[in-house]
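User: Please fill in residues for this 207-position structure.
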């Protein structure tokens, strides 16, 4: 049973990830609220999309693209484990900070469900049963912060240029830089805490 799950879970995860990212993009474009290029850049400026792309690439690297050189990066244990951290935070952050402000329907609801709930669950399950556990030092949790830190810097720079921010808690126009820096620090602390928990779990499961 476990071996079958290990074989089919990445395939299911890849299809769920690819479908959810692309379908939500198409739905947003179909609304026509802004020029297609503007909407595309905005859509791919969400941490949810960045992280779900990481999830999709990691699943694809061990299934359909296992022999591709470009996919070698996403087969690295450190990358797959870090992605488990990122997608976990995305799921919790959406549920507790954003879900009350967004009420999609129809296919958009289904895509949103995949992006914020199903894909995180699938990838965390994949990490538990399909990723080799390594005895990482707890400082590894700090190294995994590079991805969200790059995202925060990107969001602030792009927001400064375009006056558009993907999330209310990084909206400098409304909150100001001190408040945004505080919120960013709290979120990074959350990433570090989840990373430390993953290191602990990996050591426990390895033994």
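Assistant: Residues filled in for all 207 positions:
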């Amino acid at each position: 049973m476990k071996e079958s799950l290990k074989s089919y879970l990445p395939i299911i995860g890849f299809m769920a990830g690819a479908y959810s990212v692309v379908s939500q993009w198409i739905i947003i474009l179909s609304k026509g609220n802004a020029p297609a290029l503007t909407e595309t850049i905005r859509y791919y400026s969400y941490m949810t999309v960045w992280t779900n792309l990481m999830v999709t690439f990691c699943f694809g690297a061990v299934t359909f693209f296992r022999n591709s050189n470009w996919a070698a990066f996403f087969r690295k244990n450190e990358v797959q484990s870090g992605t488990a951290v990122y997608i976990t935070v995305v799921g919790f952050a959406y549920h507790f900070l954003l879900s009350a402000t967004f009420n999609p329907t129809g296919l958009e609801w289904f895509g949103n469900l995949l992006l914020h709930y199903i894909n995180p669950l699938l990838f965390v399950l994949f990490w538990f049963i399909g990723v080799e556990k390594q005895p990482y030092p707890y400082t590894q949790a700090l190294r995994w912060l590079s991805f969200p830190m790059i995202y925060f810097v990107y969001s602030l720079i792009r927001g400064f240029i375009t006056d558009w921010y993907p999330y209310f808690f990084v909206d400098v126009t409304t909150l100001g830089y001190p408040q945004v820096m505080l919120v960013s620090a709290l979120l990074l602390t959350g990433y570090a805490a989840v990373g430390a928990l993953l290191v602990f779990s990996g050591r426990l499961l390895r033994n």
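For context: The chain has one domain: 2-206.
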